[in-house]
Specification:
This protein is mainly alpha-helical. The protein has a domain of about 80 residues. Helix content is about 65%, strand content about 0%. The longest helix is centred in the first third of the chain and has 30 residues.
Length: about 140
Amino acid sequence: MATSLEQPSYPGGVGGGWAVGWIAFAGVMMIMIGVFQAVDGIVGILDDNFYVTGQHYTYEFSTTTWGWIHLIMGIVIVLAGIGLFSGNMAARILAVVLCLLSAIANFLWLPYYPVWSIIVIALNVTVIWAVTAHGADMKVRD
């Protein structure tokens, strides 16, 4: 029976292989999500006619505005994904917050690029789960 609520005990004093794998997965996925969002942003900024705009939408911005939103968010998500490999608590909190914001932004982006938005939302939810369920296991203990 565990006497502490802090962290589970693993042989060797380091997080279990599966847990570390999930955090590495989350870091890599954040880097990929960030790069993909930055590319979406660059396309939106450079070519206003690339994304098809349909009916009027409540959260309708120009594709250039959405481009800047995606570009800035993508750069920050890449940096947070790199920081996630440190096992730092601040990096984990930032990862969850950024993935939440990315999921919301992609939900609002649905009318412009629906299939890709759903894929990115699912990846963000997976990253949030990996970081919240196994985040502390990435950190090497003394």
